[in-house]
Amino acid sequence: MQGELIPVFPGDNNLKNYEEARANFNWEDVEKEFSWYRTGKVNIAYEAVDRNVLEKGLGDKVALYYSDPARNEAVTYRQMMERSNQFANVLKKYGINKGERVFIFMPRSPELYASFLGIIKTGCIAGPLFEAFMEVAVRDRLGDAEAVAIITTPALRNRIPKDQLPHLKHIFMVGVPEEGLGEGEIDWHAEMEQASTEFDIEWVDREDPMLLLYTSGSTGKPKGVLHVHNGMIQHYQTGKWILDLKEDDIYWCTADPGWVTGISYGVWAPYLNGVSSVVRGGRFKPADWYKTLEENKVTVWYSAPTAFRMLMAAGDDLVKEHDISSVRHVLSVGEPLNPEVVRWGMKVFDRRIHDNWWMTETGGQIISNYPCMPVKPGSMGKPFPGIEAAIIDDKGNVLPPLQMGNLAVRKGWPSMMRKIWKNEAKYNEYFKIEGWYVSGDSAYMDEEGYFWFQGRIDDVINTSGERVGPFEVESKLVEHPAVGEAGVIGKPDPVRGEIIKAFISLREGYTWSEELQAEIVDFVKKGLAAHAAPREIEVRDKLPKTRSGKIMRRVLKAWELGLPTGDLSTMED
Ligand code: WTA
């Protein structure tokens, strides 16, 4: 597989020579391209939106092309500046100030983006949530962050348990519910209408927090990864060299803003580079996606392996019904990109799909395939110039090529997370090896410096590109009266990468049936989130546990895959 190589396509790429850039790169040269380098005044929202209007003459350029089955709308950079100013004024009016946490819990829409940018302009910390989250997931995140406000829609309001969230004072409602507004609920549109389109931006320190994103680990509740304004340096430069964004590009990032990709590369990278960005709402449908590429004349397209695999499964004929010749550059992130998918991309689009690797915690892209570099299908590519990534052993020794080990990044890249919210111990776990961030992924580097993903070291499940912590699912499962114990693993799946499989034991008095299975699945769906519900449940009399009572997920996985179970010395009788 390693021998396979797709050569560079002819074209005028922003990054001309990878090795040369690596040798000469300096983050300070990038900093000089921002206004704050001259003025000393920093706010990422200013650099991404207002500056395009006030300093670069891009006020009438479309920032956002939004579409879903019911709506089609274009928002210019000037409109985006004014609407985010309006929302910033609304927040101020309600006494919400710098450093406070304001969450967003709604489907993609132009209102979402104006709200998000407004939050950042006030110096508040934005906490975007997936609309798929159910009550417990919402409560855990808002509660941990002590959020003071949330922006949501009438359809989702019942999933916000106000009585359990003492810090939550204001609920901005985009759309008025039929029953009218409840206590603490505020009409988003009415407030916006009255608010001034001018706002005195809150100038912050580069190191001031900006974004709180909850993500799953293998133990405990989801943790709040905190990012700061300084990340913009990396979002801008990776947008230029990895996304290869140029002035006239129409760029489409398919990720939801509840996920880090939908923020770093759905908002910051395109806006900092002053391009027009496409957002498609609604559910995934292959034909709609091709239509989005065609109608918007998308030139740069950033998506995920699961989506590409689903498009692949929808058949090549569907592609032929659409003119997608505008697409110049295609990228993928979130899970391993199968070589087969890369080959399919060559066949049907005549384009290389450029895989890249990064995490919620890294805030921005770390390893990538660049347009100016041959692609090896199955490889994530090479570290970004100015960032050092390596394969290290558990003591921190850098391993030679072809040896598998911990994928690690030299501490200190611009968009690195700065904290785990209220959990210093968890944060420090990532940096246990002096000088390095240890990702939790295993990989190796080949002799030409390309990195190859091997797997997760912990039990985190990656289903359709979404990180699901087995612990959260197990905790929910055992809340069901029929479930005694639960162990959850990721089971390999050709389309979703992994699916969630649960092993459970039943409590006395319950017998297994299809109805009970459906009921348990539904229980997790309603309690946690649809994507966190197990697609398979297997009942066992007893689950493998350590003497201290921890479910041994690696044994469950070995059972599932028919592999040897390994060392069982810590297992109870
Ligand atoms: C996995 C996504 C293989 C990996 C931006 C990582 C990948 C986790 C790739 C982070 C890739 C991401 N190849 N695996 N190109 N990109 N991953 O935080 O296990 O949702 O640690 O951020 O996804 O997921 P997260």
TrEMBL record:
Gene Ontology terms: biological process: acetyl-CoA biosynthetic process
Enzyme Commission number(s) from the entry: 6.2.1.1
GO cellular component labels: cytosol
EC category: ligase
AMP-binding enzyme C-terminal domain residues: 472-550
UniProt keyword Cell division present: no
Keywords: Acetylation, ATP-binding, Ligase, Nucleotide-binding
Membrane-spanning parts: none
Keyword Metal-binding carried by entry: no
UniProt feature coiled coil, ranges: none
Gene Ontology molecular-function annotations: acetate-CoA ligase activity; ATP binding
Domain AMP-dependent synthetase/ligase: 59-420
A Pfam family annotated for this UniProt entry: AMP-binding_C
Xref: PANTHER family: ACETYL-COENZYME A SYNTHETASE, ACETYL-COENZYME A SYNTHETASE 1
Entry similarity comment: Belongs to the ATP-dependent AMP-binding enzyme family.
Protein name (record): acetate--CoA ligase
Organism of provenance: Heliorestis convoluta
